[in-house]
Amino acid sequence: MKYAVDFDSTLAVYHPGDFHKYGPLILGEPIEPMVRQVKAWLRQGIEVVIFTARDPISWALISKWTEEHIGTRLMVTNVKTWDIDAFYDDKTFHVIPNTGEIVDTDLYLQYKAFWLEKGN
Ligand SMILES: [Mg+2]
Q: Can you give the pTM of this predicted structure?
């Protein structure tokens, strides 16, 4: 099994506008429940990669961040590959395969409204 975990707002604290305020090289503090979850997956033998929209200039720093907070350097990528079994991301919503049906549409719409209000 292989899981892809988003970085900003999923594994590390990020607020809308932080990128413009602090630039690409400042990384947020760990979000402990997600850090614990990733550690548990690794103990179970699940491969975990960091999936991020950040510019590759910050990938080495993110990998170092995972060493500091998770205990191992995780691979960082922005490529969605066939062998990834699941994605964990604050902006992702599940679509039932081959139906176009979004799971929990109300939550999805609330989320979209939140981001639009923040100007993202
Ligand atoms: Mg995110």
A: 0.89
